[in-house]
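Hi all, posting the design record for the shared folder.

TITLE: backbone redesign
STEP: 1 of 1
STRUCTURE INPUT:
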C-alpha cells in the first residue's frame, strides 16, 4: 500500500494527568494529540512504526523488538508486533553491507516513554500492529539513511503504514533555546534536511530525546509531497513538547 500517516508525538506520561484541565500546557498537548488520534483512526493503518530513543538494549545498533505480544499498560491483550515487516527489513539489510545496522531484540516489557505515545494514539485502534525501533548512537544522517530503507519497505508492502517519531525537544530550558528555534523554523519553512545538520553541541546541550527519531522520520518521508504542520508546542515537566504531523499538500 504505502505510508499513509506520519507525525511527531511527545512521550511524557504526565500528559495523562487527571488534573490536566488545570494545566494549560497539558490541555494544549492533549487536544493536539486527540486531533492526531482522530486522523489516525480515520486512516486505519495496519502497522505503526514507532521511532524512539528509549528501550535500547544494544546501543551500537538500531534495536527492533520482535517479542509479541509486548506487555503494556492500557492494552488488554498486549501490543502485537508486525513480525513480517521486521523479517522483510532484516532480509533487505542482510543483502547489503550494513548487516550490523539493526539488531533484533526480544523484550516483553517496554519503558513508559514507549507506551505513552502508543496509548495516546491507539486509544480506538488497540489491535493495530506495531514495530518499535530504538535508535542507536549513530549520527543524524545515518538515522536518516535508515529512514530511507524504511520508506522503501513501506512503498513495497501491501499494508497501510504509519510512522511516528516520539520524544521531547530541549530539556531544562525555556522555549527560547537554540535547538527548538532551529527545528521549529526548519519545520515551518519545510527545510527538513537542514535539521540533520544542526550542530552536535547544540543537540547535546539540549538533552533532547527526539532528534534521532526525527532524523529517521525525515528519511522515511523524504521525496513525499508532505506539508509539516505544528499542532502544539508547549513546556511541560521541564521539557519542550512538540506535536506535529505531515499532510499531503
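Okay, here is what came back for every position:
SEQUENCE:
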Amino acid at each position: 500500500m504505502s505510508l499513509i500517516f506520519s507525525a511527531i508525538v511527545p512521550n511524557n506520561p504526565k500528559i495523562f494527568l487527571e488534573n490536566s484541565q488545570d494545566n494549560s500546557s497539558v490541555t494544549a498537548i492533549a487536544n493536539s494529540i486527540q486531533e492526531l488520534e482522530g486522523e489516525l483512526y480515520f486512516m486505519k493503518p495496519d502497522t505503526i512504526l514507532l521511532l524512539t530513543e528509549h528501550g535500547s538494549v544494544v546501543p551500537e545498533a538500531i534495536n527492533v523488538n520482535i517479542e509479541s505480544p509486548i506487555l503494556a499498560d492500557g492494552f488488554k491483550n498486549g501490543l502485537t508486533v508486525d513480525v513480517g515487516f521486521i523479517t522483510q527489513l532484516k532480509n533487505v539489510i542482510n543483502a547489503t553491507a550494513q548487516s550490523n545496522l539493526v539488531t533484533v531484540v526480544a523484550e516483553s516489557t517496554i519503558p513508559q516513554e514507549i507506551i505513552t505515545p502508543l496509548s495516546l494514539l491507539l486509544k480506538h485502534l488497540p489491535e493495530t500492529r506495531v514495530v518499535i525501533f530504538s535508535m542507536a548512537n549513530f549520527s543524524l544522517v545515518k538515522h536518516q539513511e535508515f529512514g530511507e530503507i524504511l520508506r522503501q519497505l513501506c512503498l513495497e508492502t501491501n499494508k497501510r503504514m504509519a510512522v511516528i517519531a516520539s520524544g521531547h525537544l530541549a530539556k531544562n530550558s525555556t522555549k527560547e533555546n537554540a535547538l527548538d528555534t532551529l527545528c521549529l523554523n526548519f519545520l515551518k519553512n519545510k527545510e527538513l534536511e537542514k535539521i540533520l545538520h544542526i550542530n552536535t553541541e547544540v543537540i547535546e546541550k539540549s538533552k533532547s530525546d527526539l532528534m534521532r527519531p526525527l532524523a529517521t522520520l525525515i528519511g522515511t518521508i523524504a521525496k513525499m509531497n508532505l506539508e509539516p504542520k505544528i499542532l502544539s508546542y508547549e513546556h511541560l515537566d521541564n521539557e519542550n513538547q512538540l506535536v506535529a504531523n505531515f499532510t499531503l499538500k
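COMMENT: Residues 2-248 form a domain with the Protocatechuate 4,5-dioxygenase; Chain B fold (CATH 3.40.830.10).
Let me know if anyone wants the other runs.
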